[in-house]
Every structure is written in structure tokens, then in C-alpha cells.
């Protein structure tokens, strides 16, 4: 109400006091939406008076560019998307000097402010760029058959045919921490799957990310879809991005499990793909083979203990205590310098006394292992359901019936028999490009390939079909005939 | 800190003032979790002092019962799950008198407090129960091949085989409004797909829901899985349930689009399957056939205007204005008494003047239709992307090239050519049991059958396979051979 002049005066007066102001029309919710909640949710409605100067497009504008760029990307031929990725791979090696000099700036600015392992992740090198380029070419190869694949065909009635085809999800927001090599890799995955992409990198890698993003856009521009991949300004808060549910269809955090947990908490109504925990179990059954068990435990725990698919809890059948099998496992763990934490039941049995576990639900991510005793496969399954994270759980046994019982009953993304937990991985599963591992139960579960970045749409081709013709007194009947699905989309 | 006595005294003193109190241990976050946030999130930790007496199990206990009951349900043979559903169908007709008398109580209590359409939805009848029983038998029939189906098999290496199989999602929370017939139907869908289920019905149907839930549990008990389906107390707030993200894997609101919107807002980190809006478009191209267009518009708009797949916006190519085709459509709409709202461009063309639209993004759900003019198929697509809800959009044309362009470019769950929007439906698509229609881009999209209640898990069967054998200097190489998938699971 009132004149605009008084509003602007009030805004200026507030600004002088250091408070930013929004002037917006809140009188017609049908036309303008719910203005106050929109402003609170960080949308750019009305006029914003602030001392801070905006630079470049707003996130909303970037989201729209990613959406429309992604839509164009999705309608390209698969070969054209592959070409873009190959071109990006070429640029990574051709423009090596520029990339490394930008990266050097980041490293210099980070010097003394970041811990050594973080600096290492931040740093790029010729060999890193080379293997990145090789990875990109693999993504290009596995992208050929992803978008536009026909999954199902049904004849609904004469000349009325239904088709379910794969399509990109839409706009992805990928949030990554210090590693700048994430950018071209994630960019290639989005391009391969025809998705628009918003990238949010860490401040510490700003120079590297800027050049890598420019190269990605250069590659995209060979088919006129430069804007499909957008780099979000480092000023934008992750929490604010996670609220843009009209704009973003899927969030993929790439980084520590803490990052994943933070994003899962911040995401309001936008699905998040990722695993926040990998508490993997191995149950060594009474009928396990001595040599296999020891070999499997060592590979699962010691090969790369920081990985999410590394073993964290070893469940041993009670009958095995004080047998050569058990001694062999304990000796191996000593040799490998694995610190043992005893579960309550295992602790009460021991004469020597390793530290008792603080919690049976711990992801050590290091050369540490919890050992607990169980009386049966049922008890092992109960323990896994109670303390596990539904990531990857393994049974070691020679008894096929026990193994199948375990495989059927354990409710985890990956359940293995006589195999290392470490096979839980997109590349090892043969899924081609690895997008991540998901412990969500919705959409993709377990190791996720390019398929995880796709959804489907239904196409129905008719002549002039109306549903009233199929009513009780209508002239037509539903056929619902399954039709053969082409093995490859030749579109 | 301090003695327990003083804490209890303080609690009693607060109680006398009408304030409930929680006494909980917050000193060891590692052991007890983050107590204050747990309490704020409505979890039952510590000791709760309140004047309100609790009745029956807590929601948390019900969630656990649904989880473990569901897990047992999932390990039954498909025939056993079908038997349970058949038994429930029998009970619905055998126990008709009891059900109808409970329903009568609800109706009597609602009399005068609910509007006539709501009373009608609340009311059950012999014929409603009979058709419900028929629906249940259809669900039983379509459930045979759902859980445990092998989707993919890969030979990773010699004697190391990977399998991806369908499994239930876990625990579903279904929230429904006045219609009590929802309960057995949703119960049957959960049983068919092996999921645990929490049901939250409306207060107004409490008596009916109670007896229908008892019958569902009676049916479940023939295979000892009575607890897989739980009816949540009407006292529990929907908002509180939507916070139980550790307990619930998927929320399915069944009711008005307002309910779906409310739930989508309330759900914290739990995915919601449903469509909040169905703003369906039909684009009549310059090369459309006169008779087809009129027939398709009538069926899409007039056959059942309250449905989410009914037509809301008709886009007409400019060349058609003042042609017989256009006149025929307008005449038909007059005969059918459809109120026309003109889009801005259409309004400026008209000499007569129907009401101009308030918003181009409106779901009328009634005999009302927005008409707008576009200059090309590209403009039609742009309009649909800007104002649509990605539900169902149709092109009417005789030009196959234009049609295919539309099918490829429109980014909606369902895109049709020369067919009524009303085909967008699980039954009409031949998906068997209808779970709902989803406008989400993650997991299920469009009409959803039983598959929408399933996820997958990965089973890996090895001998003693470890990943270090596959390293650069290892003895094994990945084969990643695709293996044939059995056509039906005979498990």
C-alpha cells in the first residue's frame, strides 16, 4: 500500500542502517506466488536493495540455462554427446599448462591454510590430467546406449502403441570438495546422460575450477549446448542451493561422508544420491574354509581401509573360537597391524583384552576392526540389520544353503557370498562409468552407473484414440500385448 | 548434573503448571545420540512426564514391527503373498455386516460435520466391498512376478557371478483421507510387493479403518506376518510421522492434490511418491485432422474433468483460427458446457470475449478450459515447459515428423500423439495394479504399477574372490560378461 516513493525511502533508510531490503508485490498471491515464503526461501523476487554488488547471472538464471541447455543436449545424437566428451578429454591434455598454472595459484593461496592431505587432493599434475582424460573417453564409450533406450513396448489397442524410454533426469546439482578433477569427470557424466548440470566446487579450488569449467563449455559449444553445464559462484551457500527444489531434480554430493550427511540434512524436497555410511560386515560361518576366510578378511579390511566398501565388523560363529581358522585370522590381522575392537560378547570370552568397542555401529575407515561373536546365521543377520548401514555385507561359508539363506535375508544394497566387500564398486560390477554408490532405497541402489542419472518417459502413439471407446459400452477392448524391445536404440 | 530427585521434582512442578517434561541423558552423545535434536524430532528418548496417557505401541515400535514383519513377508513364496491377499478379499465379503456397521458409526458421527461429497467418500456399501474384493484379486494375480525377479546377470570372473534382483523398498507410510476402501487396497499392494506398511487414515473413518485393519492382520496371520501392516493411531500428527526418516523409506499420500503438497512440504528427507498437479496440455497442430481434434479434446476435457489426467490447456496453432476445425472445437465445448478461459494472445484475437485467464498455470479440475494460440510446435513446447506440470501432454497432427519432434522434445512423464490425455493411467497402460501417478523424476515416473514399490539389491556369488587378484600385477582379469536373464523367477 502507499506510494513507491515512500517504500524506496524506507529501503534506503534501512540500508543506511546496514540492513538489506526487498520490495515486492505481495497483494496477488495467484499472480505473484507466496512472496514472503519465496523471499525467505532465497528466491530472487521483487527488488533487492543491498550494498553487496551481484556479479554474473543469479543461480536461478543458471538453473534455467542448465535446464534448457540440458534439454537441447538430450536431443543430440548419442555420437554428438560422445564427441563433446572426447573433445573435453583432448582439451585437458592440450591445455595442460593453463590448467596447471591455475591450479598452482590455488595451491599457493591454500599453502599453510590447508592440511597436507587436502593440499594433495587439491593438486593437479600431468599424470592426473592424463588419467582423467582416459576416464573421460571411457565415459564417452559407455554413453552410446544410455539416453533414448526403449525399456518396454505395449500394444494397448490396434494402432495404439505405448513405449517407455530412458531420458535424462533433468538438472543435477553436484557438490564437490577440494578435488578439482571432479569437475570434468562429473561434467562428462552429465553430458553422457544428457542432463543439465550445476556445479558447486570448493572455494580453495576456485582458479582450477574456473579454467576446467571454461574448457567444459568450450567442448559443449561444438554442438551449441555451452550453457548445459554451469559453475555456481563460490559465494552461494550450499544450504541455499539445496532449497531450489523447483530448479534441481537430484543432488549428488561427492566428497566425505560428512559432506553427504550435511547435504542430506540441508536438502529440502530434493532427492540426494549418495551414501553417508559404509559399515560393512563379514560373517564367518561355522562351515567356512580356513584359507578363504583369512584371505577374504584381509582383502576386505586391509587393501584400502579408507574406502566405504572396506570391512568394519567381523562376525564370527561361536564354534570357530579357539580353532585354527580363528587363530589364523587373528594372526593375519596382527601382521597387518589391524587394531581390534572387541564386541561385548567377544570381549567376555577373551583372556587377552583388546579395547572394547564404544559402539557396534562404527565406520573406522582405517586399520581398525570390530570383532563380535554370534551363535548362528540368524543372529548374524539380526546384528547386520541392527548395526549395519545396508551397504555391503558378506557371508563366508562352504554350505550353499546357509549362503542362500543369508543372500535372501540380508536387506542390504550388496550381499555377497565368499567374495571381498571391496567388489562393491561400479567399475568392478561392470557398470561402465561410475556415478557413485547409493544406500538409498529409492531410484538407484548400490553401485550406480550412468543409469542412475536417467529416468523414463512414456510415449503413446495413436490415431485418434479416446478412453470412452474403451468404456463398458464402448467399441474397443484393451489388448495390453507385450511387444519386443529393440536390443539397441538406433535413433 | 545433580541428583535425580531434584530433576523429578522439577518435572513434577512443571507438570503442575501444565507443561510436559522429558528427562534424558545428554552427556554422552556417542552412546545416547544427540538427545535434544532427537527429542525435538519427536523420538521417544529418556523419560516422558505427561498428563496424557499413552495407549498401545509407539509409532517407533510400530515402525520396527512393520520393518521386521515386512522382511518376513518378503521372504515368503509369491504364492503365499497372493494367498494372503485372496484371504483378505474373502474376508471383505464374508465380514461385510461387521464392516458396514463400523462404517455406519463413522457416518453417524460425521453427519452434519462433513460436506456431502466427503460423506459419500466415507461411506461403504456391499457393492463397494464387492468391487474392492475383485480389485484385490487382480493385485494378487499381478504380484506373482514382482519380488525376486532377476533384472541383470553378469559374469565378473570365473565362478564370480553378479545378479541384480528386485526386492521390496522396505517400510511404506501411506497417508489417506476419508475413503476407508483405500486401506485394504493399499494393504494388498504392500503385501504383493513384500513391503512393511504404516497406514495413517483420517479421524473421520476411525471405526471403519479399525475393522479393515483387523481383517488385514487376520489375513496376514495365515502366514505368520500379522505385524507387517500397522495402523497408526489417529492421535499422531502427520507432520511428526514425516520426520521418521530412519524408519520410513517412502511416503505415498493418497488423496487430494492439497494433501500431496502438504506431505511433500512436511517430509524431511523421506521421498514422497505422488503428483501434486496435473496441468495437461493438448497442442492442435496446423496439420491436425478436424474430426480427430474435436474428439480428442472432448474425451480429454469432458469425460471426467476432476481427474488429474484431464485436459486443462488447449494450444491451437494460429493458422487454425477461423477455420472449420476451430469452429467445430468451440461448438463442441459450448455443447458440453465447458467454460473457456482465454490466454492473453487468444484474448487479443477474439471479438467475443470469454474471461481472460488469471494464470496460464491452472488446474481447473472442472468443466473449464484455457485456450491459447501458438505460432509453431516449438512455441507449444515452450509453453508446456513454462506452464505445465510435466504430467501428460499431447499433440494432434497428421504430420509424423512434427509429432516425433513433439514426442522427443516435450519433457513430461507422458507424451502422446493423437490420443486422449486420459490414457495416462496404470490400468490403461497395462501395468496391472495401479499404485498411483508420479510426477517425480526420481524412481518411478508417470503411471506406477507394483514396480514402483520395489527396489533392487545386488547378489554376488564367488569362491574366495578378492579384488587384489585383479590388480595390475594380479592373476585375474575382469570378464564383465552379460549372462542371460531368466524370463520368470521360479524361486
From TrEMBL, chains A, B:
Keyword Transmembrane: no
Single GO biological process annotation from the record: L-proline biosynthetic process
Catalyses which reaction(s): L-glutamate 5-semialdehyde + phosphate + NADP(+) = L-glutamyl 5-phosphate + NADPH + H(+)
Residues in coiled coil: none
InterPro entries: AceGlu_kinase-like_sf, Ald_DH/histidinol_DH, Ald_DH_C, Ald_DH_N, Aldehyde_DH_dom, G-glutamylP_reductase_CS, GPR_dom, P5_carboxy_syn
GO molecular function terms attached to this record: glutamate-5-semialdehyde dehydrogenase activity
Keywords, alphabetical: Amino-acid biosynthesis, NADP, Oxidoreductase, Proline biosynthesis
Top enzyme class: oxidoreductase
Pathway(s) annotated for this protein in UniProt: Amino-acid biosynthesis; L-proline biosynthesis; L-glutamate 5-semialdehyde from L-glutamate: step 2/2
Pfam family, one: Aldedh
One GO CC term, this protein: mitochondrion
E.C. designation(s): 1.2.1.41
Domain Aldehyde dehydrogenase stretches: 59-321
Alphabetical list of PANTHER family matching this protein: DELTA-1-PYRROLINE-5-CARBOXYLATE SYNTHASE, GLUTAMATE SEMIALDEHYDE DEHYDROGENASE
HAMAP family: ProA
UniProt name for this protein: glutamate-5-semialdehyde dehydrogenase
Amino acid at each position: 500500500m502507499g506510494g513507491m516513493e515512500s517504500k524506496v525511502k524506507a529501503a534506503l533508510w534501512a540500508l543506511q542502517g546496514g540492513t538489506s531490503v526487498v520490495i515486492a508485490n505481495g497483494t496477488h498471491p495467484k499472480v505473484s506466488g507466496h512472496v514472503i515464503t519465496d523471499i525467505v526461501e532465497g528466491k530472487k523476487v521483487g527488488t533487492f536493495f543491498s550494498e553487496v554488488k551481484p556479479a554474473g547471472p543469479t543461480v536461478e538464471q543458471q538453473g534455467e540455462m542448465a535446464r534448457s541447455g540440458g534439454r537441447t543436449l538430450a536431443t543430440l545424437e548419442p555420437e554428438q554427446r560422445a564427441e563433446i566428451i572426447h573433445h573435453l578429454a583432448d582439451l585437458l591434455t592440450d591445455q595442460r599448462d593453463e590448467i596447471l598454472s591455475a591450479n598452482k595459484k590455488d595451491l599457493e593461496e591454500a599453502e599453510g591454510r590447508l592440511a597436507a592431505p587436502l593440499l594433495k587432493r587439491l593438486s593437479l599434475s600431468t599424470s592426473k590430467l592424463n588419467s582423467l582424460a582416459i576416464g573421460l573417453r571411457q565415459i564417452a564409450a559407455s554413453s552410446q546406449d544410455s539416453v533414448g533406450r526403449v525399456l518396454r513396448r505395449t500394444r494397448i489397442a490396434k494402432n495404439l502403441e505405448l513405449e517407455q524410454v530412458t531420458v535424462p533426469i533433468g538438472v543435477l546439482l553436484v557438490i564437490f570438495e577440494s578435488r578439482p578433477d571432479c569437475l570434468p569427470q562429473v561434467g562428462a557424466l552429465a553430458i553422457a546422460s544428457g542432463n543439465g548440470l550445476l556445479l558447486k566446487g570448493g572455494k580453495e579450488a576456485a582458479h582450477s575450477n574456473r579454467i576446467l569449467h571454461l574448457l567444459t563449455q568450450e567442448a559443449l559449444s561444438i554442438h551449441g549446448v555451452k550453457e548445459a553445464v554451469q559453475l555456481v559462484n563460490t559465494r552461494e551457500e550450499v544450504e541455499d542451493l539445496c532449497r531450489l527444489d523447483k530448479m534441481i531434480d537430484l543432488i549428488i554430493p561427492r566428497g566425505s561422508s560428512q559432506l553427504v550427511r550435511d547435504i542430506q540434512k540441508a536438502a529440502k524436497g530434493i532427492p540426494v544420491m549418495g551414501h553417508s555410511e559404509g559399515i560393512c560386515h563379514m560373517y564367518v560361518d561355522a562351515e567356512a574354509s580356513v584359507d578363504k576366510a583369512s584371505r577374504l578378511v584381509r582383502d576386505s579390511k586391509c587393501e584400502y581401509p579408507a574406502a566405504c566398501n572396506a570391512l568394519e565388523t567381523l562376525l564370527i560363529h561361536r564354534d570357530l573360537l579357539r580353532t585354527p581358522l580363528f587363530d589364523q585370522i587373528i594372526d593375519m590381522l596382527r601382521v597387518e597391524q589391524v587394531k581390534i575392537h572387541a564386541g561385548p560378547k567377544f570381549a567376555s570370552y577373551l583372556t587377552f583384552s583388546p579395547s572394547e568397542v564404544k559402539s557396534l555401529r562404527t565406520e573406522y575407515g582405517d586399520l581398525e576392526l570390530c570383532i563380535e561373536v554370534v551363535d548362528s546365521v540368524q543372529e548374524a543377520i539380526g546384528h547386520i540389520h541392527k548395526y549395519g548401514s545396508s551397504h555391503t555385507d558378506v557371508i563366508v561359508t562352504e554350505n550353499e544353503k546357509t549362503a542362500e539363506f543369508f543372500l535372501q535375508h540380508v536387506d542390504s544394497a550388496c550381499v555377497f557370498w565368499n567374495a571381498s566387500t571391496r567388489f562393491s564398486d561400479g567399475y568392478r560390477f561392470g557398470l561402465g562409468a561410475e556415478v557413485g554408490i547409493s544406500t538409498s532405497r529409492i531410484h538407484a541402489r548400490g553401485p550406480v552407473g550412468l543409469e542412475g542419472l536417467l529416468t523414463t518417459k512414456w510415449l503413446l502413439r495413436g490415431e485418434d484414440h479416446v478412453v470412452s471407446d474403451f468404456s463398458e459400452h464402448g467399441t474397443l477392448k484393451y489388448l495390453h500385448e507385450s511387444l519386443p524391445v529393440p536390443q539397441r536404440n538406433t535413433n
